[in-house]
Amino acid sequence: MTSDYLSPISKKLIDFKNKLPNDSLGKKIILYNIKKFDYNKIDIAIIGIKEYRNSVEVKSNFIDLDEFRKELYSLYYGDWNVNILDLGDLINGDNYNDTYFAFKTISDELLRQNVKLIVVGGGNDFAFPLYQSLSKIHSSLNISSVDNRFDFGKIDKDFNSNSYMSKIILEKNNSLNHFCNIGYQTFLNSQEEMDLLNNLNFEFHRIGKINRDIQTVEPLLRETHLLSIDFKSIKASELNFAHNFPNGFEGDHICSISRYAGLSNSVSAIGFFELLNSSISNSLLSQAIWYFVEGFCLRIEENPKSKNFKGYKYNVLCEGINLKFYNSELSQKWWVEFLDDKQANANNELIPCSKKDYLKACDELLSDRLLLVLRRNLL
After folding, report:
1. Domain end: 246, 273, 297, which one?
2. Looking at the whole model, is its pTM more than 0.85?
3. CB-based burial label for 242 (10 Å; 0-12, 13-18, 19+)
4. Pairing mode, if any, of strands 321-328 and 334-338?
5. Residues 278, 355: one domain?
6. CATH number, position 79
7. Which domain holds residue 243?
8. Per residue in 228-269, pLDDT tens?
C-alpha cells in the first residue's frame, strides 16, 4: 500500500550516491525497496514532499529535493549506530486532500512501528496529518513549532499552512495536551491569537529570548511528540534572501534545536516545512537533519525517581510552594516536582526544567515557565 504513494529515488541520484566515499552518510542510508522491506530494522525514515497547494506563501520557488539529497548524502556519517531509510518523495494527489490521505497512510504505518519520521518539504499544513497519525499512538499529545507565527489563523472553507493549529484545536475530542511555539515575532501575530494561547495555557517564546539562550529549548522539547520547523523562521540573510523575513534564527541555532529534538525521547516526528529553493537552504537543511540524527543516537532513558538515578536532589521552598529539583550527573538535565497536594498534578510527574528555573527558585521566585505549569495543574 505504501509503495502506491511514493516516487522512488531517481537513477541519477543513485549513481551520485554510489560514487560517494564509504564513510559518507549517503553510503549508509538505505533506499526504499518496493518489493521487499522490513521496517523492524529501521530507526529513522526520511520522506520528501512537493505538495504546496495549501501553503499560503510558498507556491513555486520550493526546494529541489534531489539537490537537497546530494547535500545530505555528501555529509560524513557520525559515530553512530542507526539505520536510516530514504523513502523517496510522496506523489501528489489530484487535490491536496488526496495528498494528505497518502501521507497519513504512510505516517500511520511508520509511526506504529516506532520508526522516527523526518519530513522534508511541503507546507506547515502537513503537521495536521502528522498530528492525526500520532493521535492514534498518544491519547495526550504535545506539539512544538519553530515558527515566527503561531498558525492559529481563521479557517474559512478549509485550513491552510497558516491555520493548521486552529484545525487541531477545533477537532472534536482532539488529543492535543500542550502546544509550544519557539521563536514567534510579536508584530507577525495578532493580539487575539496571543490571548487565545494564554487562555489555553499554551507556551510561546519570543525569538529574542531564545536567541539569547538557545539552551532554553532543550526542556521545552523533552516531552514533545511532534516538532514542526518553518524555514521562514530563519532570518533571510542566512538563506541568501530566499524569503522576505529579515529577523529570525541563525543557522547554528536551527541545528541546535534539531539536535535537542533528536535528544528528546518523546519526539517521534520532525517536519522541515516551507522550504524555499536555494543552495544555502539545501546545506542548512542537510546539516539540521545531521544534528537531529546525532541527537537521536545520544538518547538515554533517565528516571530521576528510580534507584539507579545518578544525580542530585534539591528541596526548595519558593513562594510557599514545596519544590523538589533533580539534576542528572550523566546528561546534566533538570526536572522539578511540585510536592504540595494542591499544586501537584494527578500523577505527581516530573516536569522538565532548566538550571535557571532552579536558581530562580532559590531566590524565592518562580520562573515564568514554572508559573505556567502551576497554573495548568491547578485547572
Report:
1. 297
2. yes
3. buried
4. antiparallel
5. no
6. 3.40.800.10
7. 2-297
8. 999 999 999 999 888 889 999 999 999 999 999 999 999 999
